[in-house]
Amino acid sequence: MSVNEMTLQTLEARDLARDTQAMRERIEQFRDRLPASNPALIIDPARAPDSNAQGSTAQGGSIPHIERDELNAQVLRAAVLEHGALLVRNFFPEALIQALPHMIDRVLECVELPRKQKRQLRSHYYNPPDNLVSIMPEGAMELGALRVFNAKVGAAMCAEAPSVAEALLELFDAVELKRLISEYLNEAPCLSVKKWVIRRSALPVDEAGWHQDGAFMGTNINSINLWMPLTTCGGDTGAPGMDVVPQRLYDVASAQGASFDWSVSDDHVNTAFAMNQPVAPVFHAGDAFFFDHLYLHRTQFRKDFTRPRYAIESWFFGASAFSKSQVPLAW
Ligand SMILES: O=C(O)CCC(=O)C(=O)O
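That is the input. Now the predicted structure with 2-oxoglutaric acid docked in place:
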């Protein structure tokens, strides 16, 4: 599919019923599918350095960064295998992404409407498919809790805005992301209802927990996250980016002393990763930051942020090596 630009007008010209049905079907395709019990893992725990399953002996960790024309699946794989992540500068052409913050504003406006009003809404920015409740492992309770959790941090699931989601998939196709991700994963990819999320960080940013997504996704999976900043952020730019531990990890770090069973305490980060202390890279709109479910990170928080940050988080899994709990959807 070739897409030259993405605007609010092109989005609002889409066929809402068709997009909603497409999202519905993407979800249904995985309803009864189970992941392989013994997938060939890209990150093989058996390759962890002997001294420590978390690989903390590696020193001088860094985030490899390249330009778009240097990117291919082998480069992505080599970087993720060695460093856990790859930052690709200028991956998305400006014309394809400049409207995305405005779309995110509109989606969040819809999400914030009173429940009764939302129930009657049919919008290109909000129209959850009717199978969203039944696909959640814990049904309505889980969907409700997820919505509350997301709303608190200024986030919403793409699946709730099927026209935005379908337009994003066309954008991904236009930059040949599907080919890249398929080659990286060694098979067709799928996405995740729960972990395909638009974000507009609310200020001030609450203290966020260090985490590896594998702590709640499971580790018997092949994954890659495309974290797509839409605002200059991170470092000292005045908008929250992400803090990351720049290191390949092979296992989920201890949650001892942390606020949640899926998070990691500051103390643990400071001691277990003393050789590779956290960094807060500067990101720009159009960059693509790739990392996997073992990468340790958190939303950057500090008191003096002055600008919100827009971003889209898209977790991809192998179509046979996925996290069932994260509710896969077909791509
Ligand atoms: O956008 C953020 O600050 C957090 C993103 C995140 O945790 C993720 O992409 O896994």
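The domain at 8-31+64-330 is CATH 2.60.120.620 (Jelly Rolls).
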